[in-house]
């Protein structure tokens, strides 16, 4: 943060110098915004996002993520420990509408038919995460999202020891979601999704017969 400290010092000297005109509120606001932008850029640099190399913070964020290879499927350890996931910087959170989360984490997936994919873990309560799959466009902005695993679905009527939410993503990008009762040995529902050319998650018709 040395650069920020230097800028703040220079601003204080500028404002305190005698014989110079005072800055208007608009000019002062612009200078303070410049200092804030420098602070944000310095913070992003510490997380591997250097806006001097690109004017697209979402691209820098995407490029900074670890890659989760496919196929992938539900396991208790995976949703608990989130291997290879990295924190989502505060400056990026708003792009994903995650303002209600304290410490969201993310990992990227291999691209599919031009769709850039990110798996984001959102902390709904301490150390408990839901998992969301996001698709991004050519400008790295979110297009669509799909919930793979939601901790809030485990209501009081369902014993977590008897109930499992299962998800899987194949190497062909078939996304399968199901709820399974371990005591009844029965699937409560099943949904299968694919990614279309518009980078949307589209559900295929399925049957539980």
The helix-and-strand class reads alpha+beta
- Rg measurement, Å: 23 Å
Number of β-strand runs: 10
Helix content: 25-40%
N-to-C order of helices and strands: HHHEHEHEEEEEEEE
Q: Summarize the biggest pleated sheet.
A: 5 strands, antiparallel
Low-confidence stretches: 6-10, 12-20, 31-37
What does the overall shape look like?
globular
* Mean residue pLDDT: 77
- End-to-end separation: 62 Å
Give, in spatial order, the strands making up the sheet with the most strands: 1-7-8-9-10
> How much β-strand is present in the residues?
25-35%
Q: Count of helices?
A: 5
Can you give me a brief rundown of this structure?
By secondary structure, this protein is α+β, with helices and mostly antiparallel strands. The protein has helices at 2-16, 25-45, 57-64, 76-81, 90-93; strands at residues 72-73, 86-87, 105-112, 115-125, 128-136, 142-149, 163-169, 175-181, 186-195, 201-204.
